[in-house]
Amino acid sequence: MTLHDFIRAMPKVELHVHLEGSTQPEAVLHLANKHGIQLPADSVEGIREWYTFRDFPHFIEIYLKISECIRTVEDIEWLGREFLRGQAAQNIRYTEFIYTPYNHFQQKGLSGDEQLNALNRARAWAQQELGIHSAMILDIDRMVRPEEGMWTAELAVRFKNNGVVALGIGGNEVGYPCSLFRTAIDYVRAHGLVCIPHAGETVGPESIWDALAVCDPPRLLHGVRCIEDAALTAELARRQIPLDACPTSNLCLGVYDSFASHSLPALLDAGLNLTINSDDPPMFNTNLTEEWLRCADAFGWGTALIERLTLNAIRGSRQSAEYQAQMEFELKAEFARLRDQYGV
Q: Is the whole model's pTM more than 0.90, yes or no?
């Protein structure tokens, strides 16, 4: 047996993955046919070709079309089930997924409470039927007005003890720092909820410094461009703030030319706390399993490092210390069993 077999079989944790951005070609076709919405292609193969990453505007075009195909709360629950089914199929035991409810309120008038109740039904079903635990990060798209961001912040606080574990700040970093949404961020923090922003992918260290100052985040989504600033790298290493890295996403968005030029090895050498994630998997022709396979091949990672980064993820999750300890115990036992089984 090979390291690849081990990676496919191993238990996994994913913290940086978008629900809408995980919509598989089969799912978007199903929803489009259900609601009579025309897509650029009418076959799975055609949709998969359309999904192929070209540039950021094309990526946004696909994202908005997927959002258009999601018309009802029943669609949201169904999509939640499909997403969690796909996560469970990779042996992902715990996942925190990012969801942008304001889009569906703005486009179709679906209330935030209805949307999250639907996703909570999907989460309960997946936990019961598939054994996968999950939680939600509610995302503010940086391109909405700050007062619109408050809509998401208030919804996140209402569901603080009902599936939501953080407020997120996502979307285009260029020209849209976290500080634009200081009121929403301060609001959730005053109500005991953290903010986990995207920072340091399409914009460099200045985006991360802004996120640290405004959000005081327990984790950062991306953050890999901290390596361009020695003081920032040292600060993140000192504070051991997890960076939820998405290597293939970074390549598609032109942050790095190839895995060989990616900063992950340098970040590890600098003592940073990393996790591995897939971001918007079908749009980047990946998933979490593929991310691990690609990293192992590109960087020569072995089972010890893969286990360590997986444990980083469960320790960085927004679950209780008791839950984290139990999951860590189970993950370590499973990794040990698989190492013996596969001889790696």
A: yes
